[in-house]
């Protein structure tokens, strides 16, 4: 179980901080500097894909159908991302 949590946490952090993923997000039209010009719906999607906690929760839930695992992994991904950015 611990390895599964670490796996999904790592996937969530990588989906936020890996340079190729950031370039893909920019390529599909989600740039942080253009956030103020987005519509309400596009801002919602932007926040979803740029938030480690949110993205990890949904990716884990879709991948495992286990809400407990998704919650634990998402909180850990959020904490790791905060530590990495400080």
Outline:
The protein is mainly α. Helix content is 78%, strand content 0%.
**What structural category arises from helix and sheet content?**
mainly alpha
Overall mean pLDDT stands at: 95
- Strand fraction band? under 5%
Give the uncertain stretches in residue-range form.
none
Query: Considering DSSP H and I runs of 4 or more, what fraction of the residues is helical?
Result: over 70%
Give the end-to-end Cα distance, rounded to a whole number of Å.
29 Å
Quick one: biggest sheet? none
Shape: globular
**Number of helical elements:** 5
Tally of strands: 0
Rg calculated over all Cα atoms: 13 Å
The helix-strand sequence is: HHHHH
Q: What is the domain tally?
A: 1
Written account of the structure:
With 86 residues, this protein is mainly α. It has one domain. It contains five helices and no strands. It has helices spanning 2-17, 19-27, 40-49, 52-64, 67-85. 20% of the residues are buried. The mean pLDDT is 95.
Distinctive features:
86 residues, mainly alpha, single chain, 78% helix
Task: Summarize the helices and strands and which ones pair or pack.
Blueprint: H1 2-17, H2 19-27, H3 40-49, H4 52-64, H5 67-85
